[in-house]
Amino acid sequence: MMGEERVVIVVREFDPSKDRVGVEDVERRCEVGPSGKVSLFTDLLGDPICRVRHSPAFLMLVAEIGEEIVGMIRGCIKTVACGKKLSRNFRNSTNNNKDSDPLKPLPIYTKAAYILGLRVSPSHRRMGIGLKLVHQMEDWFRQNGAEYSYMATENDNDASVRLFTDKCGYSKFRTPSILVNPVFAHRVAVSHRVTVFRLSPHDAEHLYRRRFATTEFFPRDIDSVLSNKLSLGTFVAVPRGSLKSEEWPGSGKFLADPPESWAVLSVWNCKDVFRLEVRGASRVKRTFAKTTRLLDRALPFLRLPSVPELFRPFGLHFLYGLGGEGPRAAKMVRALCDHAHNLAKEGGCGVVATEVASREPLKLGIPHWKMLSCDEDLWCIKRLGEDYSDGAVGDWTKSPPGMSIFVDPREF
Fold it and tell me: Is the distance from CB of 157 to CB of 363 less than 8 angstroms?
């Protein structure tokens, strides 16, 4: 009796000249939402590697059976902060007593790899294709010196969580919040008690490195992020009148004598990378949303909270690098978010989104709609080797979460 024919699964690097149609077909089949439920669909605008293209190193793999593409995975590698250590700052010392020298926190960097966009055709699941894609991507990570691999998924995506935690050796690591706010048909008013400054990429880099370089997942190549064409600017908010003049003094002078409260954030243009679309909404919900927009456009002075056009492809701006200090820092963040809303309106976006640590104190200042947001995004992590360690951090996978996290916009 002859045995069943063995299925040969080939995993290889994505070839844009011949694989684009097959990849897009798998993407469409994977994004068929459950009957009767609202689902979110992603249009990659004809560029399957758009979500990793701007990273320092990236790769996309496809799985095929015969000549049919049945799965794909994307990955990228970068160097990020995984902790901090204290070092004596001798340059700032004012006496010869080393015991009283100020201690300066310095970032501890590690080479981290990120997995995203794992897809397996619904008709070819339970064949080990996803596992094979992950393992081969991890091989590439190791060959390129990555020390950790991590991924993000919805907290209730049981299939994805089981694959990574049960079969691939990942552990649950962080649960940041994705906060999404609609872009209304009217401009929102930025508090007249706040002054907003726009920083040059050089000034922004200096500020981020001085104050936020030890934040978990802070990218060492922050200069590349800030100078990218998709980065629309970095903005600082301070209480009106807190600076001696209305001109930005430069990050050096600002940090040497900061106001009692301030905040900073940067804006990334996801609209030119991909578009989103909500499908499966009932006619009642669509009619309600359209009515709110019509009222908002007709009576903008009322500043009614309208539902944007989410039922056809729409773009978004992503807010990253949120930080601040002082008792009114959350209010400064609110002013920056209002400013970012108006930028998104001018750019024709449907929503503004950000992702912050679950315990982020500035979270209180970020406006968002609960129905559009995700309280717990799940990040899972895996250590790729055992022959390295920094005594100040040890195994990063076992470290407790901090108050803040830096979410790289190149991976959103």
Answer: no
Q: How confident is the model at residue 267 (pLDDT cuts 50, 70, 90)?
A: very high
* 3-state secondary structure labels for all residues of 24-57: HHHHHHHCCCCCCCCEEEEECCCCCCCCCCCCCE
Check whether 403 has a pLDDT greater than 90.
Answer: yes
Alpha helices in 180-328 (DSSP H): 201-212, 222-226, 251-256, 283-298
Using CA atoms, how far apart are residues 107 and 104, in angstroms rounded to an integer? 10
pLDDT confidence of residue 1: 37
State how far the alpha carbon of 352 is from the alpha carbons of 116, 176, 289, 308, in Å: 21, 17, 17, 11
pLDDT-derived band at 390, boundaries 50, 70, 90: low
- Mean pLDDT on 313-328: 97
Phi, psi values for residue 339, rounded to 5°: -65, -40
Q: Which whole-number Å values give the CA distances from 321 to 101, 231, 288, 310, 324, in the listed order?
A: 30, 11, 35, 26, 10
CA 135, CA 46: separation in Å to the nearest integer? 27
**Res 2 pLDDT > 80:** no
**For range 44-61, the mean pLDDT:** 94
For the residues 203-225, what does the mean pLDDT come to? 97
Sequence-separated contacts (24+) of 339-342 with Cβ below 8 Å: 339/190, 339/196, 339/235, 339/237, 340/235, 340/265, 340/267, 341/181, 341/183, 341/184, 341/187, 341/188, 341/367, 342/187, 342/188, 342/190
Q: Dig out the tokens for 70 from the structure.
A: 């049945």
Domains present along the chain, CATH in parentheses: 10-77+112-174 (3.40.630.30), 177-375 (3.40.630)
Cβ-contact 64, 18 below 8 angstroms = no
Phi, psi of 197 (to 5 degrees): -110, 145
- Looking at every residue in the chain, the average pLDDT score rounds to 89
CA pair distance 397, 150, nearest whole angstrom: 10
Under DSSP, is residue 141 helix (H, G, I), strand (E, B) or coil? helix
Of residues 124 and 97, more confidently modeled: 124
Contacts of the segment 370-375: beta carbons below 8 A, 24+ positions apart:
372/180, 372/181, 372/182, 373/177, 373/178, 373/179, 373/180, 374/154, 374/155, 374/177, 374/178, 375/177
